[in-house]
Amino acid sequence: MAVTIGAVAKAAGVSVSTVSRALNTPDLVNAATRQRVVAAAERLGYTPNPAARSLREGRTESLGLLIPDITNPFFPPIFKAMQERAKRQGYTLLVADSDEREADELETIAAVSKKVDGLVLWASMLPEDRLAELAERMPVVLVNRQVEGVSEVHVSLTDGIAQAAEHLKAYGHQRCVFVDGNGNRPDQSRSKSIRAAFDAHGLSLIEIGPYEPRFETGVHAAPLVLAHQATAVLAHNDLVAMGVLHQLAALGAAVPNDISVVGIDDTLLASVSTPSLTTIRIDPDEVASRAVDLLIGLVHGRPPALPVVQVGSRLIPRGTTGPARRDPRQ
Amino acid sequence: MAVTIGAVAKAAGVSVSTVSRALNTPDLVNAATRQRVVAAAERLGYTPNPAARSLREGRTESLGLLIPDITNPFFPPIFKAMQERAKRQGYTLLVADSDEREADELETIAAVSKKVDGLVLWASMLPEDRLAELAERMPVVLVNRQVEGVSEVHVSLTDGIAQAAEHLKAYGHQRCVFVDGNGNRPDQSRSKSIRAAFDAHGLSLIEIGPYEPRFETGVHAAPLVLAHQATAVLAHNDLVAMGVLHQLAALGAAVPNDISVVGIDDTLLASVSTPSLTTIRIDPDEVASRAVDLLIGLVHGRPPALPVVQVGSRLIPRGTTGPARRDPRQ
DNA sequence: GGCAGCATTGCAAACGTTTCTGATGTATGT
DNA sequence: ACATACATCAGAAACGTTTGCAATGCTGCC
């Protein structure tokens, strides 16, 4: 059916091995025959069968990306950047959505792992020992998850949060609420960083939650913010912040005049909201590049220079933050 | 390195062919040996090498999905639903983002086509003849693109648009603006359906554009809406609608009191905006299921019952539509 | 009791590719 | 001129799997 290397060989009047060499290691064949082969391949529209190549080579030229939920607008830019980066290095990216469920994650890894040369696991929910075990069998890069002996890209919110605290402090805010949307996930670093940064700036911080990172969580949090007489809210992410904005409007609280709101992630939501959302940006291109490069390094047997790669963050001040109200209404 | 079928055969004391049969066609082997084989496979953690299987079988058990831009919030739910549907039937889904560029689309198809058994091409920008040619070489399902002789899933906005016209008419609107964000893409059906529906309801319709389907397009359109003395806007999609909302607020026009706004797609944006956006919903699960089932049918050599499968739409009335203002300010 | 038929299993080919091992011819150095 | 080296290519093996074919042993029927 499809045009194989044998057909090209026959068309060019050489053996299959010569065709293979002409295409893969051109220096090893005579210039004239190489041209004949290339011309024949071109004319017949030959493209190598990746299954056969994989079988022989033991490599698939594909990378896997496992994410908790592609519906979270944080991930599409990540996927896009990773795909771009992978393509540039000759790899195809295979994404899989684990739907935030540990069982699905295991199943998906099983289905995908043999089809790729390595895996990027984003915020994996698997237990440590399983991850360690997996990482011994194949190249694995973790993002936002720490396991001894496994390579990792760590996105640090420290800088962005410090800037947010500075920003709110400068605007005269004193009482802030943090809406924790981390649910029951293992990683508690977000909450800790925020506590540290706000303490450092002498801002009083009220933590509520943990809840799930959903729009409704923000809706739920809005009246609590007013009840706590706070003038600023830092939400777990942009989606939660949108819920806060929505319900503050329903409650008649003006943003940013009465309450300032800060999100995290700088997703599409933040730039299209009204008013546009002040948020903490994590550069998707950077984390994607780091993760892909690290993984490809592992695939090629190059151990990482550092066990964990850090990626920073920064505040993007927009329309939902402003001077604190001197006389909170209630 | 990895555990092969040969290792299982040795462990179970049988030949490789028996192992293969015990796992794939259990009826053909003795119950006792089958159990030995299954036990051995389980114990060694055997999973078949998909490359070898593909090579032998000529099938990859994967499907490809090509979309213009995963960053468009319309697509993540589509992807998720397709992945789910494909998984249930034993297929892996390989997504690729063509970045709205025809050149990238070609390149991506070339990179992906040999790794999958069939392709879903969403709103392809390729010329007709290339698509027809591709569809002859492998199973192809088009979405929102029509080419003679190629299977297609067509999402029809007709119902949703009719409901929107009805909705606006009932609220007393008379002059409406449609913001065309179709750019230079071939498919003009959206614009035509809208013209037809609004004419049918006796609503005067002012079309502006075509522009690109971006937030900024909505920002650009907002003052035009006011200048045209319209009381309602139908935007090309939710993203454009968000731009309209944003800029109307900046211009001091209240939504929905002064102007009503309707989006299309019912993406996450619509449900989290303030006020929440009235929009036309296309059920992602339905179109995803239809496309995947159709494609798998083609892969298995089953020709489609109908050349084109229709998927409907409906209006989701929310907070951005209301009674028309009797005395437009300007 | 012999033979047909069936259940069960092993052997070997095949899928398309890469690469190792030689073979052939030509150029080079002495 | 002869041996050596090198450039160039063909042949064949190997990757892991499925499956057609053949071999074996057993059952059951006449």
Automatic annotation (TrEMBL), chains A, B:
The keyword Transcription applies. SMART domains: HTH_LACI (SM00354). Gene3D superfamilies: 3.40.50.2300, lambda repressor-like DNA-binding domains. PANTHER family: HTH-TYPE TRANSCRIPTIONAL REGULATOR GALS (PTHR30146:SF109), LACI-RELATED TRANSCRIPTIONAL REPRESSOR (PTHR30146). SUPFAM superfamilies: lambda repressor-like DNA-binding domains, Periplasmic binding protein-like I. InterPro entries: HTH_LacI, LacI/GalR-like_sensor, Lambda_DNA-bd_dom_sf, Peripla_BP_I. This is LacI family transcriptional regulator. The keyword DNA-binding applies. Residues 3-57 form the HTH lacI-type domain. Pfam families: LacI, Peripla_BP_3. The lineage of its organism: Bacteria, Bacillati, Actinomycetota, Actinomycetes, Jiangellales. Keywords: DNA-binding, Transcription, Transcription regulation.
